[in-house]
Write a structure and sequence with these properties.
CATH topology of the largest domain: Porin
Radius of gyration: 37 Å
Shape: rod-shaped
Number of domains: 2
CATH architecture of the largest domain: Beta Barrel
Number of strands: 17
Structural class: alpha+beta
Largest sheet: 14 strands, antiparallel, barrel
Strand order of the largest sheet: 1-2-3-4-6-7-8-11-12-13-14-15-16-17
Mean pLDDT: 85
Number of helices: 6
Length: 456
């Protein structure tokens, strides 16, 4: 074989190795945050996490929706040429007496204008289904309708996919997740293309702190696109930068380690009030160096400015307390005046009694003195009644203050519970609440019943 022919053969082999793989429905990153952290993660608490683990959205307590875009020349299996668009919604709801979250999503993918892939997903994730010590265990499932079609000729084929997942949250800072994607490994045949949606087994862990989040994910995939299955390891880190009025900014970085598809990732995010915008970038470290890009917009309905709301509540409480203190001071002043008046009237009554004893012989004046004494006695009774009413009013004001304080603390607990706080935090908060108000003489039955429910 000549040197020229050997060169052409080597070039052909190299081009064959770099050619995009004809694969279907791989587990590509579902959003910009995932791409910025290296790729999908089975334990990342994120609105789009149901694509990697259907059990993760169970902890979501607000309606969330959004859209995402991904453009890449690399999949988790190797070289490719794709652009993907998706939209989703997470809907928390009660089913059979148990809380959970329904996931609805649609995904459209175009592989270089030759093949299109459409996915319609309906999923469910439980919320604190099982309790193990201080932690909780949740399960989830996704049902997918997946259609692949050739752009030329219009030939298409449809299949059904099934994802299963489980999550263990030992505390509020850590999450452990395991999932199986495309459990039934659906097969597709379109012209010369014969492939199976790869079955993916994922195992992940994440840790969340005030200013950062750490993720680590491992995955094993079955063969697809003419390539053998591969193993991947994806570590990532996210840091949050807080501002006073402009929301929170996020910086992300990660690396995807896998045969034929190793890449270095980075990303940025901005979250303000009920909206979040993220951008992700991944640069391959093998093969052609063509960066991947992803953009995600998330909207949360029901989010409020908690800091501003607490500020307003504190101002209202300060005003209420100031008005109550002024009312109590006025009551104390009037009470002191009434006591002085009662003392003066008592001295006058004693004087009148003495005069009556000395003037018993003066019958003409006795009747008048008795009437005057009766009038003073009536005034004394009226003053005593008013004093008693003032005392009762002070007692009622104090009870109203206690009821207001309990109501404020109870609302704070409900916000804590609505924010998805762990059971041990809720239990501790309720125990402090009951201990503080149980002997105050006010109705705290709702807190007592809530505590009994948590203890059970």
């Amino acid at each position: 074989m000549s040197l020229r022919n050997s060169f052409y053969l080597a070039a052909a082999c190299l081009l064959a190795c770099l050619a995009p793989a004809g694969a279907v429905f791989e587990d590509v990153p579902a959003g910009a945050r995932q791409l910025g952290l290296g790729g999908q993660a089975a334990a990342l608490e994120d609105p789009l996490s149901f694509f990697a683990n259907p059990a993760l959205p169970g902890a979501v307590r607000k309606f969330e929706t959004g859209a995402a875009f991904l453009g890449s020349h690399r999949t988790t299996q190797g070289p490719a040429d794709l652009s993907a668009y998706g939209a989703w919604a997470l809907v928390p709801r009660m089913a059979y007496g148990k809380m959970g979250t329904m996931a609805l999503a649609g995904l459209y993918r175009d592989d270089g204008g030759e093949l299109t892939q459409k996915t319609l997903l309906v999923g469910w994730g439980s919320s604190s289904l099982l309790r193990k010590g201080s932690g909780t265990v949740d399960f989830g499932v996704n049902f997918k309708i997946m259609q692949a079609a050739l752009s030329a000729g219009g030939e298409s084929v449809m299949g059904l996919g099934l994802d299963l997942g489980a999550v263990f949250r030992p505390d509020s800072a850590h999450t452990l997740g395991v999932s199986i994607l495309n459990l039934n490994n659906p097969a597709y045949k379109l012209g010369a293309l014969e492939d199976n949606a790869p079955r993916v087994l994922r195992l992940g862990v994440s840790e969340r702190r005030d200013d950062y989040t750490l993720t680590l994910d491992a995955a094993a995939r079955s063969a697809s696109g003419g390539q053998n299955g591969n193993l991947s390891l994806t570590p990532g880190v996210e840091h949050v930068w807080r501002t006073e009025r402009s929301g929170r900014f996020f910086s992300r970085t990660g690396i995807y380690l896998a045969e034929r598809a190793t890449a270095l990732s980075a990303g940025l995010g901005w979250k303000h009030a009920a909206s979040e915008l993220s951008y992700g970038l991944a640069v391959p470290l093998t093969g052609l160096i063509v960066p991947a890009h992803a953009l995600t917009l998330t909207l949360r309905f029901g989010d409020r400015d908690i800091e501003g709301e607490y500020g307003r509540m504190i101002k209202q409480e300060i005003k209420y307390r100031r008005d109550l203190v002024e009312a109590l001071d006025e009551s104390a002043r009037r009470e002191a005046l009434l006591k002085e008046e009662l003392s003066s009237m008592k001295a006058e009554i004693d004087s009148l009694n003495a005069r009556l004893r000395g003037e018993r012989e003066q019958k003409a004046t006795v009747t008048g003195e008795k009437e005057r004494l009766a009038a003073i006695v009536r005034r004394q009774a009226a003053a005593e009644a008013e004093l008693k009413a003032m005392s009762e009013k002070r007692r009622a004001d104090k009870l109203n203050q206690l009821r207001y304080d309990f109501s404020s603390d109870w609302q704070a607990y409900l916000k804590l519970k609505g924010g998805g706080a762990p059971a041990d935090v809720l239990k501790g908060s309720l125990q402090r609440l009951v201990s503080q108000y149980q002997d105050a003489g006010i109705d705290i039955s709702q807190a007592t019943m809530e505590l009994q429910t948590l203890v059970k």
